[in-house]
Amino acid sequence: MATFVTITPEEMTEDVFTAIGKEWMLIAVGDENKHNMMTASWGGFGVLWNKKVSTIYVRPSRYTYDFLENGKTYALCFFDEAYRDKLTYCGRHSGRDGDKCAATGLTPCFDKAAPYFEEASMVVFCNTLYKQDMDPACFLDPAIEGNYNGADYHRMYIGEITEVMKK
Description:
By secondary structure, the chain is of the alpha+beta class. It has helices spanning 16-21, 63-70, 84-92, 100-104; strands spanning 5-7, 25-30, 35-40, 43-48, 51-58, 73-78, 108-109, 116-117, 122-133, 155-166. It has one domain: Pnp Oxidase, Chain A (Roll), CATH 2.30.110. Strands 1, 2, 3, 4, 5, 6, 9 and 10 form an eight-stranded antiparallel beta sheet that branches. A two-stranded antiparallel ribbon has the order 7-8.
């Protein structure tokens, strides 16, 4: 298995619209004793408060939400297309109901501030700086409401990028 090398956020060359929106990512949270991951296709990277940041969006109904609320760090794990079925599984099944690592065969690593996966092609580690619930009163496009059933509105998390590893 290839080893990771640390790069700066500026050295990331991935098209984030493809990497997040089409290829997806796993948001990984927790520690060696209790952790979870979920597939996400909403998020982004940018600069805010003079810091390099990521934004992720998680609904309160998701098991990962509690981990984000009770922790300070998360990892965004990106994979090659060969892992699509594993990301699909992680998006359709809750960690409340079973061990997603056992079900997918993904290998968690715990030597950093947040868990990540040996099989990932790139990992972005982040410290949470800010969180806020999406307020439907602020939707300027009424069609956005169509993304929500039962008012399960996302919470946005902004995290400072602390490390990027790539194979």
